Fold each of these.
Amino acid sequence: MEKQLLRLNVNDQNYEIYINPKTLLVEAIRDHIELTGTKRGCDTVSCGACTVVVDDMAVKACSVLAVQAEGTKILTSEGLEVNGKLAPIQKAFLDEGAFQCGFCTSGMLMSSVAFLNETKKPTEKEIRDGIEGNICRCTGYNSIVRAIDSVAKGKYTEDKV
Amino acid sequence: MSLSGPIICPVCGKKAKTGSAIDCARHMFGTGDQPHRKWVEAQGLSFIDLLIEQATTPGNRSYVLLGEIIQKDAEKREAEKK
Amino acid sequence: MNKYTVINPHEPFKVINTHIHNVDGWAKVTGRAAYTFDIKLPGMLYGKILRSPHPHANIRGIDASKALALDGVKAVVTGKDTLGIKQGIWRRYKDLCDEQILPVDKVRYIGEPVAAVAATTEEIAEKALDLIEVDYEVLPAVFEPLDAIKKGAPEIHEGFERNINVTRHIEWGEVEEGFEEAEYIREDWFRCGGQAHMCMETRCAVSSYTPDKKLTIYHSNQSPYYMQGLMAGVLDMREGDIRVVAPYVGGGFGGKFELDGAIFCTAILSMKCYKPVKIVYTREEDFIASKRRTPMFYYTRTGVKKDGTFCAREAKVFTNGGAYTGMGATALYLTGFFHSFPYRWKGYRYDGYRVYTNTLPSTSMRGFGAPQAMWCSEQQIEWIAADLGLDPIEMRRKNSHQEGTILPGQATIASCGIDQCYDEITKWIKGKGKLPANRSIGISACGFMSGGIFNWFDSPYSFSSAVVTINQDGTVELHIGAQEIGQGSNTTMAIICAETLGVKVEDIKVHSGDTDHCPPDLGAWGSRQTLMTGNATKMASENAKKQLLEFAYAQSGLNIVYDLDIKDRWVHAIARPERGEDFVKLVRKALRGKDGQKIVGRGYYTPHRKGMISPAYSYMLQGVEVEVDEETGKITLMDSMTAHDCGQPINHLGLIGQLEGAFSMAAGYGYLEYMPYEDGKLMNPNLVDYKMIRAPEMPPANIAEIDTYEPEGPYGAKEAGEGLTNPTAAAIGNALFHRFGVQMKECPVRPEMVVNALKEKKEKEAAEKK
């Protein structure tokens, strides 16, 4: 298939890449733009490791074509920090130990960010449902739930960037 | 025919628990060493097959089966003594 | 949300058990951490593996000419391109080295590698696989150990009568006498399922062979040193010519310390074309062709007195070994050992048989045979208590190990906090009051090892080694061979090093995961690193500190009865802490005194005189509150409580994470993670159909940590995080027993099993009424 030029905006940076139109968004981000923080853990849209935020919505980047993301604003885990300053959710993950091997962490962070944007005062159940699409094999999720909860409760308000 | 005394193990001479044939069979499986295995095999049984049966299906059929053979053997030996 | 309490805390520390962020945390929460999965080398090729569709077949011939003709394909390798060396991690025992990663003439399970391709893109490599023609002679296959062991079953490996791969006998004390004293004897039969490790990062490797005959491998694994040794064996190279780098590793859980298709095939391909080659398993490949927890059949017979005193136990076990030995032989041993835990018996006897079948090989997985052992043991004990009308907690308590318990010829228990675990669990249960009608509580006890005293790998090196180097600015380089796989070993070692040297965690730079730069270490398995690498790290740090303090002494003019120490970067006499010197200043002076040589401390650890199994044992109790829908059989976990003794906790943030994580994996084994095979084919090799705990299924995980002191461990520490994979399945089973009176004999417990058990019970009750 003929390669085509695609413009993507990832983490407030414009990129021009030549890709096969069948390229998935996760492949464009990892293999073409070379932001490898976003991972892949399955082939069935089930694990959430590739979750990125597209126009404020959490999207599994293995479930959409890169060309479908043209004209949107994409945020990945690399875009959370600003000038070396961590975002509240990143600090909360550190404080709560909400990661172990770290392979699901980027996707988990992005699901959390999108969830917190949508839900201002979440209950514990809402938090759990909010990250249901992301598998973490290491932590048992509770530390992640605590991290999201502490951000929602405003623990890191002064750190907002 | 009933025996005059408790059954002792035909291999090592131990009396197992109550001295019944089935307890002797348990003892044989428990020990599982070469002499006991050989005795079981000599009765035309497969030690491993009995073990599989015992380890996988409730009912203790292996113990019952081996117990019957031990009982017969003990009876035979008692008859020979007389 | 969760409650974490420490019982009898011990706090003379500056660093240990304070709130320390994971030292790899920054990299992991910013997307910077690069895994093998992310590695891209210049000129790198992409590999794919052709896998056997047959569970058992002879390979008569392979024609790869069409694949080689495809544009972009650079190399195809088959078993014929290898040395054909049969390998295994039990190197001391030749007959247990039974696996060629690319078999030369025979495949033994569906998914076994047959050929591998390297091409310029992954798509081309994939296409090339379709062009490889393999001529198979399909052989009769056998999938269940109890069929494979029958007379006349297909022979899977030559020379193994009845396909019996390994047998294990464990015995101590007076078994027969114990049973004789017993007033009540119970026999039960159980089945335990397999479980997938399901690491988020699938097996993957990048190998680069260069014309100077050196091989560099990036590989997602738990023990770079084992990989180096095993690869040297199969390639007939010197260990020192192979460099294994395990960068950030996306999970291991016991599934990543044997050779896999990715590491082997990339190396062979790279040696053929002198270019780096990368292979990443798809999730399906990871399910069907990595390894799994060992499925087992258990028969266990337990004799007790009417007052609940335990007398004797014997167990007979058959395990489904799958096609090869791997670490499965160790699982066969450990399941038998831990089936006796955590109780005292007058006599204990175990016979285990590992049987080859034409299925995915089974191996070590978090818990290493003990989850199966506890599934059977802890349910049976609950049933015995019910049969005798005894309190199950008090019955367990009076029979449990204590400090000083001796398992003849096997182990001496030097520290044991299980008694207080019973108190904490009882408190939790009492605090619940009356439960709603659809809920019930189950508990389960267990103990686990802190590293194995096994060297079947035949390493001539110490089990663990560490090197501490102090730079002129007071920063510290800690080189360890321990492998960080997410469990937090880098952080643990940084804490131990900082505490010992008297500096801060941010002063320590941890170097691990690279055989070229780190000392050999057996790696991350069997919960060994905190104790073993921890001891080596402590020794190396003490050694470096001693060198520093010698200089401090020399210049202080103090009477030799005074002791010097370093805390918070402050070098001082213990008796007069206010008089001292800054750590960095002292380091600079000491360097001058050493003719400019850096201060280097070395440490090592190999267990001696600690029995057959492990230097130390952790103890724990797990309680779960379970809700069951009687109509559908659906199980929901509502709450949980862990009472846990890991000696001195080193890092409570890491400890909580380990316990919560172990609980989720253990609960999954109890009621969700099912691996059904049909004719040797796994029926659910994907994350849609393979169910596991997700965030909504996870209950609160309350923890009471019993702080004890283990004399063999660094600062009194022992195992945490693997042991807790063991008790939970049985605790769920026990909750079902208390609610319905049904006895679940097979795990994982699926909804239809609950429904059927309830139906059977009703039918039985109806029949009895008549």
Amino acid sequence: MSPLDFTVEELDELFDLAEDIERNMGKYATSCLGKKLATCFYEPSTRTRLSFETAMLNLGGSVLGFSDAAASSAVKGESVSDTIRVISCFADICAMRHPKEGAPMVAADRSSIPVINAGDGGHQHPTQTLTDLLTIRSLKGRLSNFTIGLCGDLKFGRTVHSLIHALERYEGINFIFISPEELRVPDYIIDVLKERSIPYEEVIRLDDVMPQLDCLYMTRVQKERFFNEEDYVRLKDFYILNKEKMEQAKPEMMVLHPLPRVNEISVDVDDDPRAAYFKQVQYGVYVRMALILTLLDSVKEKGGKG
Amino acid sequence: MGIIMLNVGKIKEGFVLDHIKAGESLSLYEKLSLEELDCTVAIIKNARSNKLGKKDILKVECDITELNLDVLAFIDHNITVNVIKDERIVDKKALILPKKIKNVIKCRNPRCITSIEQGLPHVFILADEEKEIYRCKYCEEKCDRFDQ
């Protein structure tokens, strides 16, 4: 599953539900009573797994699963197809994280229960993108007509690529890509923007564009991505968000980050009301609740597991 | 299988695949799994062609439902497919790029699930008809059709 598999209307329905969940948590406290979520994590990702588990527990359901391939039958050589057939007998819905690209799709093809992709290698991490979109929609009130700056490692960051693809479908989005030359957005993404006449700009320094931004999406610039130490030392400060840089920003700009952050956002920004990265984690739980509910409801509509 | 170079006789029922790029007929033979068919197959290499200079031709005497035209279209949609019945051409089939192909090419992305999952078919989906780009169903890696 990729967020692009949903139409814009379907996404809106999902986000409406997530926002209703945010306002009336109590109303949904027993929505999944008696239902079980299996979290099948073939590689550790504590944050994502806990977010899924919290989502299911908030809905009154229960959770089971494994958090490392070493704790599953994969070490004995069991295939994803076999594992999901077994899990289908235990649980009503599954969230799967796997280091191999496309593994959750193989599972979904073979499964009799809904399978959510909780990250497959460097390929997709759709629930992160849904989280990002919901956060922007909730805090900005819309997913159209704003300028978003994406800053840091734009070459390898899959969350950045999925977010760009997801936002391309909305009206009036202006992209500003802020990265060192070595970590620019890949050409195939730029080609799509050009083809569809979506405005974008590429800059090297965050300072140069701060006042224009309605939303700033920060990612980490890893030292090992640079060709040499000298460039890293020269450029790293361009991509560290601190109190001084925030002073140039609009009063209503919001700062997002997929987390974990290391030092690209200094802690003195945390108290700024525009820092939205911890709220983003909370929205991650709401959107996963909405997703679980929607998928289990669609199963119900189809009459049984399906 | 018999390789006949000249004066290949007419076939009663089957296909004549014409305008195959010179030198490609043997790989086409393999990809169409013609070794599995118990019928006469003639492979003509480097025949003279006005259009191509040199070309290969494949003649296959088989039931006309037995040939996988999707695979053929994927490999080279410029090939002319003549359908033969009672020793005469009764139809010329246009080859259209298939929307999906299964187990014709393999995904070469080492990070793809197809690299470790047993018994999983290699499925490619036509992602861009204009640019003739196929992508792996699972990891979306682009496949180069001419590099397989």
Amino acid sequence: MTETILATHGITKSFGALKASNDISIDLRPGEIHAIIGPNGAGKSTLIGQICGSLAPDAGRVELMGQDVTGLSTDQRARAGLGRTFQISALAMEDTVLENAILGAMGASGRSWRFWSAALGDRSLRTRAEAALERVGLAESMTKRCADLSHGQRRQLEVAVALTLAPKAFVMDEPMAGLGAEGSKNLTGFLDSLRQEAPILLVEHDMDAVFALADRISVLVYGEVIATGSVDQIRSDPRVREAYLGESA
Amino acid sequence: MSRETLFNAALLLGLIAVPAWAVMMDEPFTITLATRAVILALAAAGLNIALGIGGLVSLGHAVFFGIGGYAMGILAHHAQSYTPLMEWPFLIEGTKFMPVIWLLAVVVSAVAAFLIGLMSLRTTGAYFIMITLAFGQMFYYFAISWSTYGGEDGMSIYIRNDFPGLNTLVPIQFYGLCLAILVVVLIFTARLRRSPFGLALNAARQVPARVEAVGMDPMRLKLVAFVISGVITGLAGALFADLNRFVSPTMFSWQFSGEIMILVILGGVGRLFGPVAGAVTFVALEHFLGGITEFWHIFLGLILLAVVLFARGGITGLVAGKEATHD
């Protein structure tokens, strides 16, 4: 029954007269990358908000590992195994790279209620954080302040913080945003191997990356999923070409 | 050693050397001034945890200061008039014993901070400031109308309360006690800042969305910080009342909330010794400028303006530069 790790069932959300999500049902299966694409204003961010818990759907539900998490808050969902990255880097800019990663390790291990011992002195937190930083290639920059990082490094740190959670599923909101060709290629390679650890729901504008990575693609237009399928199916779907790829394909 | 560490050490040394000098020169008034500075620093150190690390601009910290003051006033008042605090359902008598007074100050401040925090943390920005201010005014007017305990006039306590092993009537001994408490609180704050909780709280101020996304509730972190903060300021209130041997509703006033905040900003928001630098400067200005002109607050205002405009790290920032990256 746990064929799906993460699923939405008939999620609907309106802002006034605007239906930002209209009966959206998508799922994420073990080992896959499921990409969500769609033109600007299609409702991708609204969808992510409802999956991660910052927005409550008007109707429908969200399931993680077969459990209904619709009523859970963002932090509860994170503890239940949802690891997200933000479209615009949400990092503690005054803190160091290592501290940001430790923050993730703390949340995952529930060690935030310690008032006396030093966070950086906690072996297990530190091991976890350093391992994640090493994997994304930030091992050299651990003591740098986040504010001093390049944009690309911040994107890497976003992913590293999600890694520290060892989540059941990743939800990544445009991880390639603002990356150059080189950075985009590197991250694509990394995400490619990451899917074995936990499946990834990927919202992305970079079509090269999407076509290279996605096992399945869902196309969101005006708050509705108009098609779901493999890369080839989506590429050849006339509705998709008309609605979205028309200009670029 | 960083410049900030040196600056902090110099401040601490001054807090030991100046009163020591005053004892030798037989200048008890200087000791009283130093005690005032140390207690105000303690009150500000409390606010510094909420404001400096948690980013909670509380304009209601006088609530806790006043609670501490009235905890002392009420217990000591009953002790000196030999009347019980209450007889039913069980007998509670007043006391002149400082540790018990502090315990009451701390417990009531914690409960008040928890309830106030629970309600005001739903808001942010200007609304948070306004709600904390409103709670402050509620307590202020309650104290004014509480005629059992002096109402508007407050209460005088004739003899300073006792601490085992000390003669608190000797100024330097009471000063030593206050300084010891301040040092303990500063050590605790230093540890807190580097602890997992401190790291999480610091991040909750900068990017609450991130903190949520890694599985922590920023509201709860801030609430706990608010309680810790209120408890420390409450303890300072009890000491302040003992210094003056007088308690009045002024301790609850919003002007006093503002004053604590000025101390923090003057000394350097979020800096470990910021409250100390701020309080020492404030008391010195109050004394020296206050001796020259009644309108010394104008100069305080100008200095504050200069600090806010040109030295965002306050006096600490001015002397020690920007805060170094921890580790």
Amino acid sequence: MGWLRRQRYLLDFILASLLRRKGKNLGLLLVYSLIVFMLASVMLFTHALKREMGLVLQASPEIILQRIEAGRHALIPEDYLQKIGRLRGVTARKGRLWGYFYDPAVRANYTLMVAPERRLADSEVIIGSAIARTRGIGPGDYLTFRAHDGEAYSFRVRELLASDTELFSADLVLMSERAFRISQGVTEGWYTDIVLSVSNPLELEKIAEKLTLRLPDTRPILREEILRTYDAIFSWRQGILFVLLLGAILAFVIFAWDKASGLSAEERREIGILKAVGWETGDVLRMKFWEGAILSLMAFLLGYLLAYLHVFHASASLFEPVLKGWAVLYPAFRLTPVIDGLQVATLFFFSVFPYVVATIIPIWQVSVTDPDAVMR
Amino acid sequence: MRIVLEDVHKVFNQGRPNAHEAIRGVSLSIEPNRVTCLKGASGSGKSTLLSMIGCLSRPTAGRIHLGERLLSGLPERFLTDIRRHTFGFIFQQFNLISGLSVLENIMLPAYPLAPDHRQLTATASALLDRFGLAHKARNPVQWLSGGEAQRVAICRALINDPRILIADEPTANLDTRLSRDFMEQIRRLRESGRTVLITSHDPVVFDSPVVERVIELCDGRVVGG
């Protein structure tokens, strides 16, 4: 009871102290929140992107087989499905039809894809939510494309794709095989690529090796490789941004050190008074610790909350071009909100902890001296 | 409680070229329940002596006894405890914390003891009432006049009901009328059974009938009383 009451008295005094130096503390809170906001924005954005990639690729086939012509990805003939022959471990194989379409009306790239399992009529499409948003259309409306030969084709929107992995589904247009072949000029007997399903991940490398031997003009792409590549790309981009932010972080460290550690004559005098009237060194340290902790916690929460809103409600508009890369050509997509506990803990540790320590050390130096010396 | 000093020395910046001996072998006995004044010119060492008696600093050599207890050898924690329970301080510059209200300033020494909040507020309000400052309770201390600030400082010194009151140059920032008022308040405190120790070179203080003993200091030594 007594301990609790003592903490309450301390807290009362701390809040009064914080309010007494409104200008200084508000300035510190703003700069501090800004730094947390920038770092948290990059971290949240990169993490959400990586997670979406992971989710999408988890559902994708284990091996994608592409034909290469002059070092570039080319259409693959249907008979390659037979040429692959019997491969132990491969549970399914099929040809895929997909491609890109640039819509000059909204200056965005769409991904066209054939989805036989959806049983679409030749005049129907299913579209991603970002296309629907950008074009201002919904189920029942018509979407018109200019085909490869200049002809215009109109498709009725049957439904919208679910937005749980908007990164991939945002720009997607699903259509029937016939509609795709006619509008994109891909003749019968050709596919964009071939996908293979493998149930045992340990066999992937061996199967890829056999494919390269049997079909020398193809390259097998493993799902794990794609995952690794995306991970590296986004980690690299995050690193670049962190380097760019380093200047700001350094400026903050100097600012915080100066503000927190450079005790003013007024603050020294106050510590002296508190000790003279009977406060213990421990009381003064606890009081200053909580003062620093309250300030940095508030800055952390404020910065993190703003970063969350920035990334998940404003599409990270400040860092978008650097982090998304070529994907800015997409119709704007919204990321699914996701927070990683470890990431929050890391950011918390590197922002709150150093500040509290920087505040405590000089105060400890002042508070262990005789109160009489402090007041002189 | 009797305060006894035995051959007390205080050296500032000891071991450095700018070392300065402020107190040079002071031996004294201060009687309880009396008003004692340490008199001397600026730099005579009276404030240094007072701060050592009040456990705000330690002597470089010598012993200070408070009743049966030897103060000079106690660790910081025990000194703080004695300071908190035994002494009330009134400083020359009043040393109130600006930005806080009059009431908060008065209650400050009691915070580490964590008494019941309602009771503490009632005690502080009663003190303010006694010193005619009840109407200023919620005002920030920087709005107070010199005389009012000093009365707040007295209230703060009394909040933990100490037996010994220490006042360092209490009238240095007051005019003659306010200085006489202050001595009147000291008289009342003396009547309530407290020991009062004052440093001053103001005749209004050391010539006051309230003061029962005057100890004169010069260059860190006792030269009279």
